[in-house]
Every structure is written in structure tokens, then in C-alpha cells.
Design goal:
Blueprint (H helix, E strand, L loop, with lengths): L5 E5 L5 H10 L3 E4 H9 L2 H11 L4 E4 L2 E4 L1 H8 L3 H25 L4 E4 L14 E6 L2 H12 L3 H8 L6 H4 L2 E4 L4 H11 L5
Helix pairs in contact: 2-5, 3-5
Amino acid sequence: MLHFPIGLTGGMGSGKSTVAQTLKSRGFAIIDADKITCQTYQIPGVLAQLMAEFGQDICQFDDDVPQINRPLLAQRAFCSDNKRQRLNDIMHPAMKETAVALLKDASERAILDAPLLFEAGWDALVHTTIAVLCPIETRIARVQQRDGLIRQQIMSRVHAQIQNYERRADILIYNTSDRQHLIRQIDNIFMGHV
């Protein structure tokens, strides 16, 4: 029996977004951590801290609206564990505040889609956690094709995410075959909630 809200996570290139899109198409309320990230960049205090830490050039202003250069910020944040931790220290408190508010206002069938669900401690905000697993070489190939990153860039980001989903998540989805296999697993897990 599933208990909502649910936290959905998975490593970069695992297929987590495909799972979230499938659930959204079936009427579940998806709270997207990537959208929360974009909203958080707009908070003046957060923006000021990011620019002070990672350089003024990570932000351009378009009609006075700040636009973060996400690839440049990622390049600078993922160059060391200390820089990555500093990024998390700046972003996570404001993001968590937004996530809590969105979960409070969401329907009873809410799913928090968060790549860093466990790393950020957001698993404490949900009742059930689901992780999407996929072989690392498949993930690397997907991200290279999707984002045009080189292997070294991908691996630095992969290492920033936890790798022990099997021990942390309540439910595992194995994205090791084709899309239909993935959909069948989703249907089995969410049977009775669609």
C-alpha cells in the first residue's frame, strides 16, 4: 500500500523523469525539484550568495530578470566537494521551504520529484520513497546524448549523488529494459491509485 506524498528519485540519466512524466499523465500531482531550483535562483538573497561564491558572470539580467547560466554554475560547483557543498548550503534551505509549502498545498496524490531527495534530507517530507535504478553505462550514454557532456563531467555529478538507493528507498524501479517494461513496473506499483 502506497502512502502519499511520495518522494521519487534516481541518479542522473536513470529514467526518473520518464517515470514522473508517466505519473503526471495519469493524474498525479508532480512537484518538480528542478522547477523549485529555478524559482530559488530568483530569490535576491540566494542570488547574491551564488554570485559572491561562484562569480558575478554566472548571472545575466534580461529585462531586470536574473537568468542563471546553469552550465557555468554547474561547472564551478562540481569542480570540488567543497564547492558543491557550498552550493547545497546556499540552495537547499530555501528550496526545502518551497517544497514544504507546495506539499502542504498539493493534492493527496502528490509526488515530490527530486534527484537529491536523500542528500537534501527531503525524504523526511514524504511517506514513501521510490528510486529509479539503471546501469551506470546506460546512464552515461543517455546523459551524453541528452546534455552533450563529456564522461568526466557526468561522473563528477554522478558521484555527488548517493549510490545506495537499494538500502534507502522503500520501492525500487529497475529501468533496465525498454519503455514498456518501465511502464509495467509503474502500473504494478501504483495499481489502485490511478
